[in-house]
Design a protein that fits this description.
Helices cover 27% and strands 22% of the residues. β5 and β6 form a beta hairpin. It is α+β, with helices and mostly antiparallel strands. It is built from eight helices and 18 strands. α1 crosses α7, α3 crosses α7 and α5 packs antiparallel against α7. The radius of gyration is 21 Å and the shape is globular. The strands form six sheets. A five-stranded antiparallel β-sheet has the order 1-2-3-7-4.
Amino acid sequence: MNKSSFGTHFTVTTWGESHGKALGAVVDGCPAGLSLCEEDIQKFLDRRKPGQSRYTTARKEGDLVEILSGIFEGKTTGTPISLIVRNTDQRSRDYGNIALSYRPGHADYTFDAKYGFRDYRGGGRSSGRETIGRVASGAIASKILETLGISFCTYTKSIGPVSIKKFDSEEINNNAFYMPDTDAAARAGAYLEKCMKSQDSAGGVVECRITGVPAGLGSPVFEKLDAVLAQAVMSVGAVKAVEIGDGTEVAHMNGSDDNDGFHFENGQISKTSNHAGGIMGGISDGSEIILRAYIKPTPSISQPQETTTCNGKNISLEIHGRHDPVIVPRAVVVIESMCALAITDALFANMTSRLDYIQKFYTK
């Protein structure tokens, strides 16, 4: 069984391949009455589309979205929303030399092992271009959450050995790497120039901060909010690890350092710290949710690499074509979109478990 859907109450199904005619998504569960137009979605897609700097693939795609259903007179109708983005700049000939060989770091071998067949043109469904459907759907989820006062701040925390040293939210959209630190962005550029000269690539870390999430989202056992977020983010092909709050650092801390205290003032309960990253016992605690995604280096590099063909012939393979020397900047909006989808689904699930949520929803 293959699953291309995410979410139970707010469900997204993505479709399409890197070198097919188009990609897209179907969003089911969006409430009626939400103001939505193609520009709302296009703003998100523009953040991930290729060809915007010398540090991304030279593939020229406008990534223009069309809404095919679910909208009438500028508002959602409560029925499935179908979205399509057409491919216009495929160059399948770039992949002719890997039709029979397995690219190191890619899903070529595992696709063959599972299906006995694979689309070698850019990896088919395992291509990073598959994330178009995720981002288009995430734009809708973000629009819903925005109406509820929930917002996102997502940025590149590090590229290779270069990490941010300061935080200026206004700087995030002013450089090619979506870094909130001008100096770090300049150093990241210099580092990537070295990688490109040596025909290599780099990885990095994306951090997502979510504010306005109410306490009480998630479940205490198998549907923990942090587990759902981790699943959503880990489903992105380039992500190899996810952290919430202090993440792996908790293994080196004492309870007296890691525990978050509580404080009551002006009729509100708040925390004295946020080591947990906004989620305790699998349930949101009302404070800022902090998530980090660790992105691997782009596997398509021009250096000779050892591999084998599907016929068992050992060869040295050099991958040519148009590839990103770093995936991280374009992954920023993908991580944000998956977090938005997970939070929206958890919010709608909570409406079915609490009468007061249902009453608030139907009395608006």
